[in-house]
Amino acid sequence: RNKRDTGLAPGAAAEPRALNSVAVIGAGIMGAGIAEASLKRKLAVTLTDARQDALLHGARSVMEGVSYSKQKRGPDVQRAIEFAPLLNATAADSEVAACDLIIEAVVENIDVKRDVYQRLEPQLQETAILASNTSTIPITRLAEKLVRPEQFCGIHFFNPVRKMQLVEVIRGKKTSDATIATAVAYAKRIGKMPIVVNDGPGFLVNRLLLPYLNESLELLLEGATIESIERAAKKFGMPLGPVALFDMVGIDTAMYAGRVMWEAFPDRIVASPILPALVKAGMLGQKTGSGFFSYQGKKGRAEPNPKLREIIDRYKRAPQEFTPEQLTARLFLPILLEATRILDDKIVRDVRDIDLGLIFGLGFPPFKGGLLFWADTLGAAKVVEMLKPLEHLGARTKPTARLLEMAKTGAKFYDQPAV
Ligand code: NAI
Q: 110 C-alpha to center of ligand 1: Å?
């Protein structure tokens, strides 16, 4: 389906615009990754950042990435020479504005992002496409003050960009078909797998991810150890536990993204005090060498962080014991419930997109076939039964109307036709 999929509704036709150059605004974890992925496919890339040190750091990381040689286990000079002329690291807005596609990857803050657009949009070519790599903020809200909202969409990459194949292309209320077609063509050109989704807080994949991350923080405060949480997630088949994932994402970014989700869904996302406390302590995860884990030892491997205990103890509730099965249920069932709400909200066109998103965006265990596929093997009635002991947690573990209906009729997720 994917190779031929243009991302448009059946019958709609729009030609993608020609792309010769891409600009990336924000040279942090994601900006550098997006620039590297584009450069690797020989697209000319202009990279910029508000901070010169961040720009230099980002540009260095891009060049290291594109010139990496497996044999040499390090940069290859010949490759570096080949790619160097295609990368323009600059502080000049005019050079950014001259590009065909401009991808914004600055901090997850609606005002900062809107300010960037307001400053840049008047300088862009009339045909240019502006996109945001935002992980949670609805595209329609970001587009509110744009003169050409039809030429704006979400192009959401996953971390680490080098590894994760998925790209979510997000259609805002006013996004045109030509813009979607261009974003889809760009993602394919750089070797990614695009799925087009409708707008809403967290779009598809982060809307599924947030309940999982949220639950891991709650479990920590209820007395579960980091090791037991990570072990349960990995035993289920995840490449990384939720706590290590926080460190990879960046605690500040996770906090901002979490806030957007909490504002949108306060009944089921808990505003945990742990993330702000870590941010306040400057423990931002891998990027600062310290977060839930410490990365200051040999080879930067994750090790227990002695400073964490004090932060957790500050907010800990009466400790409880958890079996591995209880941990698995707590971590994964809320994702499944969110998936049913995503179907209700028509964020995806096909139930299969939910499983594709989880497998290719989050590394969800492919041998389980995806979350909905897994749920189908259990049956909705069994899932409802598994949720019973979690009733005390409120809305976030309460079976949704869709799930209850499926339990009654025996319907499967995969029975539903694509729209
Ligand atoms: P980061 O903190 O690594 O980098 C952000 C960069 O933006 C910094 O270098 C900062 O100096 C720069 N910046 C801030 N304001 C700016 C401005 N006005 N103009 C130009 N540059 C500016 O953050 P990260 O993780 O790269 O996140 C960037 C965006 O990507 C956010 O919207 C985030 O939600 C999204 N995202 C993050 C993912 C992750 O796992 N970290 C995954 C997918 C999306």
A: 12
Annotated active-site residue in 17, 113, 156, 330: 156
Does residue 32 have its Cβ closer than 6 Å to ligand 1?
no
Residues 6+ apart with CB under 8 A from 299: none
> What is the per-residue pLDDT across 172-216, written as a single tens digit (0 to 9) for each?
999 999 999 999 999 999 999 999 999 999 999 999 999 999 999
Question: Does residue 160 have a cis peptide bond before it, meaning omega lies within 30 degrees of 0?
Answer: yes
392 part of the active site: no
Q: Is 50 in the pocket of ligand 1 (CB under 6 A)?
A: yes
Is residue 19 within 8 Å of residue 189, measured between CB atoms?
A: yes
Average pLDDT over residues 290-295: 97
pTM of the model: 0.94
The pair of three-digit structure tokens given for residue 330, joined into one six-digit string: 């707590």
Quickly tell me which residue has 């924000």 as its tokens: 26
Q: Is 25 in the pocket of ligand 1 (CB under 6 A)?
A: yes
Query: Burial level of 326, CB count in 10 A (0-12/13-18/19+)?
Result: middle
Ligand 1 atom closest to 249 (CA)? 40
Q: What is the mean pLDDT of residues 356-360?
A: 94
> Residues 22-78: pLDDT tens digits?
999 999 999 999 999 999 999 999 999 999 999 999 999 999 999 999 999 999 999
Kindly give the distance from the C-alpha atom of residue 71 to the centroid of ligand 1, in angstroms, as a whole number: 32
Is 159's C-beta closer than 6 angstroms to any atom of ligand 1? yes
